[in-house]
Amino acid sequence: MARKAVKDPVTGYPVASIILHRGSWHVTCTIPPELRPYLGGKKQLQMNLRTECEETAKELRSKVQAHFHHQFDLATAKKLEVETHLEHLKQTFEELR
Fold this sequence. Notes:
This protein is of the alpha+beta class. Helix content is 44%, strand content 18%.
């Protein structure tokens, strides 16, 4: 059973976490399912912090999370644009009937 991602209280997006992989810290963040089609179908965004220091990784996590959340904002805007366009096409189709 999949764990539910912890949400950021400000953005409502999943909180990023740091993981140690092969001696280097990475930041990962789950992409909300509704935004995955607009972010290449990926389930997570990940960035290698290129540091072995956990304290440095903790300091960088919030900056990377902000970058990831910005990507989510852009994907949300694209999603709304697509939905608006589809609604317009539906209305046009109904008018032609």
